[in-house]
Specification:
The protein has four helices and 40 strands. The chain has 506 residues and is mainly β. The protein has two domains: 333 residues, Pectate Lyase C-like (3 Solenoid); 108 residues, no CATH class.
């Protein structure tokens, strides 16, 4: 049981209680979170203390710094048949520069024109910005030529998480609710504010059994879930240590229960990770032979092993997979004001994931897609919080949402699609996708229809203010998610993410 004091910490350190406040006429509020008179937020816990998480600390510098305009240090123009070498040489030259006081080596400006790229442009140093003169048809255009599947622009550091020996301690609370930012540990003596830590949640047999993911209806290739494959590692920063209570910058996005192995924290290093790389104001296109072509440019921009980066004002067209793919070791990335248009591939699995986020604490906002399958999507074991905000999808061929194998802590806020948004047990699709996720929240979205289910154990999913039909999803008989205000105008606040961000800044 958590104490009353702990519940107050869980709800929010920024809550300002107001009495007698009512939403304006024609507006309605969720039972899970309400606005106070001065537009901060009051969260309403369930019987276990779970609340909707605060999603405001995602994206570039957790939303606390605007994306900068970095000065140009190198300008190049399009070559004739092959511009790959001239761009790569410019990147490698800028990589040798000493970073300025803000950590930037400088921007490379690609003048208007068509740049043919038969391979992959690689950025492997921090502080480099690749900038065009616009993403229109006649602006700066990078063209993936040839007949090989690959990423056109690939940004990645090296290495991986490295646990600092002797720093792992167990969480002592029997139950840490979703939304909590603090909890007790065996000993906090080795921790201080500013420490980077992993919040570790082990996968266990008991958890998988209660989710019924050891009994997925089998077909050829179906793989039952295995505990060690579901060890989840959430990156966090310690903000406060008081006795043996530790407070983190970002909340728990799925509950930690002793019966399912509880949780741990430990310090870590990630020495090869990049920082401060941006791709902006350009257009990416792929050549192709026909609408179902498979051997051509697959992903326009791919990030991995990087934190605090961005993609803005980029249009991709004709790629087989995505405009932007954020791999699992990409963190604090903002993707904004970008478009993924007119994908060319077969319309089947493993294709057309327009904006695909497998990382954590990332933000995709103000984006558009056409002819995608899974347009705003997460993959397996994705650790939140993550946010998709104010995005649209047209001419869709599949659904938006967590795709498979347990994403935790994703907000889909003001997503508009002519297709489906689903959060469900996907059963034996793929090689046994099973439960797609937990603490997945649809807020003020519009879709043709949606299936929002909560898993058999260990959390809930939410559908608040959806404009569209409700249906059973792929598999009937699954627990219903938390539904509120279906086809009801006037949800207040209109955006959960933006209101959380503004409330935190007050």
């Amino acid at each position: 049981m958590i104490t009353h004091h702990r519940q107050l910490l869980v709800v929010s350190t920024a809550i300002v209680l107001a009495t007698g406040f009512q939403p304006p006429a024609g507006k309605w509020e969720s039972k899970f979170v309400t606005l106070t008179a001065n537009e901060t937020l009051q969260y309403h816990p369930d019987e276990k203390g779970n609340i909707l998480p605060d999603f405001s600390r995602v994206g570039y510098y957790q939303g606390d710094q605007p994306i900068p305009t970095v000065p140009v240090v190198k300008t190049i123009s399009a070559g004739t048949d092959n511009s790959q070498a001239i761009i790569q040489d410019a990147i490698d030259e800028v990589a040798k520069r000493t970073p300025d006081n803000n950590g930037f080596r400088g921007a490379i400006l690609l003048k208007k024109g068509a740049y043919n790229i038969p391979g992959t442009i690689r950025i492997t140093a921090s502080g480099i910005i690749l900038r065009g003169e616009g993403d229109g048809e006649n602006d700066t255009k990078l063209i993936a030529t040839g007949n090989t599947q690959r990423s056109l622009v690939y940004i990645s550091g090296t290495g991986n998480f490295e646990e600092q020996p002797g720093t792992r301690v167990a969480i002592t609370d029997a139950y840490v609710p979703t939304g909590a930012t603090s909890f007790g540990v065996e000993s906090a003596a080795n921790f201080k504010a500013g420490d980077k830590v992993i919040l570790f949640r082990p996968g266990t047999d008991a958890w998988i059994k209660d989710l019924k993911m050891d009994a997925i209806d089998s077909r050829d290739g179906t793989k039952q879930w295995q505990p060690k494959e579901y060890d989840l590692r959430y990156e966090r920063i310690v903000t406060k240590v008081q006795g043996n209570t530790i407070t983190l910058d970002n909340p728990v996005v799925m509950s930690l229960e002793k019966q399912y192995g509880g949780g741990f924290i430990y310090k870590y290093n990630f020495n090869g990770r990049l920082t401060k790389v941006g791709i902006e104001h350009l257009r990416c296109e792929s050549t192709y032979d026909k609408d179902t072509s498979e051997d051509h440019g697959w992903t326009a921009i791919q990030f991995n092993k990087i934190e605090n980066g961005w993609v803005r004002n980029v249009t991709s067209r004709y790629f087989g997979y995505s405009c932007v793919h954020l791999d699992d070791l990409a963190k604090w990335i903002t993707v904004t004001d970008s478009r993924c248009l007119d994908a060319k591939s077969q319309i089947t699995g493993g294709r057309r994931y327009s904006f695909n986020n497998d990382g954590q604490q990332n933000l995709v906002m103000n984006c558009q897609t056409t002819e995608g399958r899974h347009d705003y999507v997460t993959g397996a074991r994705v650790c939140g919080p993550n946010v998709f905000y104010n995005c649209t999808a047209k001419q869709t061929h599949a659904d938006i949402g967590p795709h498979h194998r347990w994403a935790s802590g994703t907000l889909y806020d003001n997503i508009v699609t002519d297709g489906e948004i689903n959060i469900q047990d996907r059963g034996n699709w793929g090689s046994g996708h099973g439960w797609a996720g937990v603490t997945q929240i649809l807020w003020n979205c519009t879709a043709k229809r949606a299936a929002v289910q909560s898993p058999w154990a260990d959390g809930k999913n939410y559908c608040i203010g959806l404009k569209g039909d409700k249906y059973d999803g792929r598999l009937k008989g699954r627990p219903d998610g938390e539904w509120e205000g279906q086809n009801k105008d006037g949800l207040e606040p209109g955006s959960l993410y933006m209101t959380q961000l503004n409330a935190r800044r007050k």
